[in-house]
């Protein structure tokens, strides 16, 4: 039977220092994908090892990141580890209060709707970064109730995945990035062709992850669609219903249903008086900003990861440096994710603001060591490292291409 009914504990996925833990043997079931061939520029490793095929380059890159991290922390007192909780709290409160102030101003007609959508998308993008850092235990490590309280507000305000559910799959992403069991990235379309309707829909709404979940369940016996729905539905279903109701109202569906006698006029009047104002405020301040933010993040995140034909547990091949000016409008809503996420794959124990500061010095070193750079063809090869788009390891995606 595929799947299981409970979410496994995340503690087995990381070592004591927070870096991804690599089990002695692969947990990826390759029995059903034995016909997969290694194509592209690199051979697939026959035996599973977390030693990179580019171990010397990985060592240079990791040392450069750690050295710059150390230099910055020594130079600026507020970047020191003992200030991390305070910085995190300031960023969290600034983002949450900015969201509240922008929403309040829009509600009273002081600012226009497009300004609200952009402003709130920016504020929520900081909360997304905070969520990611909290998943890596970078703030309030010894005060789990603070982490949980922060997660709770983030879950509602992001209209997206449950942070407690995401914690498990994000840490697993670091273990198995680019493999068939990389659930987190596959659920946002990694590995699918750019023209796939599933990929287009999942870029626009997290509700569309359901369309991909069956494909993943075929490849990953540990993944449970039931658990996915149980953990994530409360917020995603609520926000999706609000968006659909708003759309139906604009299309005049309610009035049409009244005119043909399906909706009693009193019921429709109740919807207009009680439900519609809530829906309009919820969508204007939360859901529409999230459509903008989430779409930008999904485009950039799937653009900078590789999938399917890269060696397992080899950080050198998992991501690229994506800092092309044409992508700046998207990067704006995900804190320059495409340009810096690669640094996070090499060294996970770094808050997002420090990663960005480190990037100024480290990016030239990444390029010197031969990391992929502005590979804009990645999307058009369904995220394959090699040129041959049909180099695949999964079962489900064979049908999708
Ligand atoms: Zn991470
Ligand atoms: Zn990643």
Describe this structure as you would to a colleague:
By secondary structure, this protein is mostly helical. 57% of the residues lie in helices and 0% in strands. It has one domain (10-19, 52-400). It is built from 15 helices and no strands. The longest helix has 40 residues, at 265-304. The two termini are 26 Å apart. Bound molecules: zinc ion (2 copies). One zinc ion (ZN) binds at residues 173, 177, 305, 341, 345.
Estimate the mean pLDDT confidence: 89
What is the N-to-C succession of helices and strands? HHHHHHHHHHHHHHH
Poorly predicted regions: 30-49, 396-401
Count of folded domains? 1
> What is the number of helical segments per DSSP (H or I, 4+ residues)?
15
Major pleated sheet: none
Approximately what portion of the residues adopt beta-strand conformation? under 5%
Anisotropy-based shape: globular
Amino- and carboxy-terminal Cα gap: 26 Å
In terms of quaternary structure, the protein is: single chain
Ions and ligands: zinc ion
- In angstroms, what is the radius of gyration? 22 Å
Strand pairing plus helix content: what structural class? Answer: mainly alpha
* E-strand count: 0
Estimate the helix proportion, in percent: 55-70%
